[in-house]
Design a protein that fits this description.
Mean pLDDT: 93
Radius of gyration: 26 Å
Number of domains: 3
Number of strands: 18
CATH topology of the largest domain: D-amino Acid Aminotransferase, Chain A, domain 1
Strand content: 25-35%
CATH architecture of the largest domain: 2-Layer Sandwich
Shape: elongated
Low-confidence stretches: none
Number of helices: 14
CATH superfamily of the largest domain: ATP-grasp fold, B domain
Bound molecules: guanosine-5'-diphosphate, manganese (II) ion
């Protein structure tokens, strides 16, 4: 799960990570009040689940509270387009108003789980502020890494090593070491999958603070963190994925034109492979899981075909726990209600497969049936290309 910058900063603050003074606002008037309180110079920052806001015009400096109000009026309600939002952009509903600080250096700190070493890794670079992806691609030796052994944790010596590589010294070095250690503590304790500070600011006075903050969390651990779970902002997520999660269905949006309804993650992978092998591209996949009801199949199907990229749908169900007749009934009901105008290929196999096929046939609806995955893929690909 992703959260906003102001939320990440709230969490970090609880752990003692240093952040600029600031507050979130949803009206220009409120932005002015905050600026009167903490200003006069403030930074007005759009709150969306995407980076690159600075370049996109979503981060602006105001010299007076009146200017803060004016800039807030411009940013609130704007559709902000950055390299991470896609061309459609994201609507800005909230802004963070923070004290403006005098920048000496912009550094980069990131903590993620490294799959290769199966451990957290703390990354640091003096090339903060800009796109770190670019630094990683063009000058990877400017990113320093310390791997963390889960049993011993993040050692003070490791934090010092990174701070030295960032060419810090004196009190600034001490502050950076403390910053790194508290950031890691917050990362670990909140079951984060990512904590990124870009830029980590060194002020003209030599102080170290998080100017920007991004945190992602392991969805499977959210049960342990009800406060963090409450920070979820559904407006920032794919609307069909949100709709599917209401019915406990796993829906993933992809780039192609074939909608896929399957049961089980393994079958989903195999189905996508065979579609691609046959020259097509999945538009999404919807996994209805094991013990699914007729109602859930109906909802799954409705969600699947409301994706406007879907030109044809493939239903590939292996009836183990779930019965094929139940699936067939769900599909027929959904197809009747939705007045579908896209071709549908159905491949059913397993428990009660004969009854299932009979139900589809008797429905009078034009389904294409297939008896193997290969046949199903070969049928769906040309249909989705039309
Ligand atoms: P992002 O573009 O979405 O990553 O947003 P950031 O929070 O990283 O802000 C982008 C840039 O705005 C930073 O790299 C800074 O250069 C600038 N900025 C943000 N806050 C301040 C501030 O308090 N003072 C000054 N001078 N610049 C700031
Ligand atoms: Mn940033």
């Amino acid at each position: 799960m992703k959260i906003h910058e102001f939320q990440a900063k709230q969490i970090l603050k609880q752990f003692g990570v240093r952040i600029p003074r600031g507050e979130v606002a949803d009206t220009p008037m409120r932005a002015r009040e905050i600026a009167e309180d903490i200003g006069p110079r403030v930074v007005v920052k759009a709150q969306i689940h995407a980076g690159g806001r600075g370049k996109g015009g979503g981060v602006k400096l105001a010299n007076t509270p009146v200017e803060a109000e004016m800039l807030a009026g411009e940013i609130l309600g704007m559709t902000l387009v950055t390299h991470q939002t896609g061309p459609e952009g994201k609507l800005v509903k909230r802004i963070l108003v923070e004290e403006a600080l005098d920048i000496d250096r912009e550094l980069y700190i990131g903590i993620v789980i490294d799959r290769a070493t199966e451990s957290p890794v703390v990354m640091a670079s003096s090339q903060g502020g800009m796109e770190i992806e670019k630094v990683a691609a063009e000058t990877p030796d400017l990113i320093f890494k310390e791997y963390i052994h889960p049993a011993t944790g993040f050692g003070v010596f490791q934090a010092r090593k990174l701070a030295f590589k960032l060419e810090l010294s004196g009190d600034t070095l001490k502050q950076a070491v403390k910053f790194l250690l508290t950031l890691y503590k917050a990362f670990r304790a909140s079951d984060a999958s990512l904590a990124e500070i870009n830029p980590l600011l060194v002020t003209k006075q030599g102080d170290v603070l998080a100017l920007d903050a991004k945190m992602n969390f392991d969805d499977n651990a959210l049960k342990r963190h009800p406060d963090i779970a409450k920070m979820r902002d559904l407006d920032e997520e794919d609307s069909l994925e949100v709709e599917a999660s209401k019915f406990d269905l796993n829906y993933i949006k992809l780039d192609g034109s074939v909608g896929c309804m399957v049961n089980g993650a393994g079958l989903a992978m195999a189905t996508m492979d065979i579609i691609m092998h046959s020259g097509g591209m999945p538009a999404n996949f919807l996994d209805v899981g094991g013990g699914v009801s007729e109602e859930a199949v109906k909802n799954a199907f409705r969600i699947l075909v409301s994706d406007k990229d879907v030109k044809a749908a493939l239903i590939n169900i292996f009836g183990g726990i779930v019965r094929c007749d139940l699936v067939a009934n769900g599909i027929v009901k959904a197809a009747q209600e939705l007045e579908l105008d896209i071709p549908i290929v159905v491949r059913l196999e397993g428990t009660n497969v004969e009854q299932g096929k009979q139900i589809l046939e008797n429905s009078g609806l034009a389904f294409y049936s297939a008896s193997s995955m290969k046949e199903a893929a070969e049928k769906i690909v040309p249909l989705a290309a039309q």
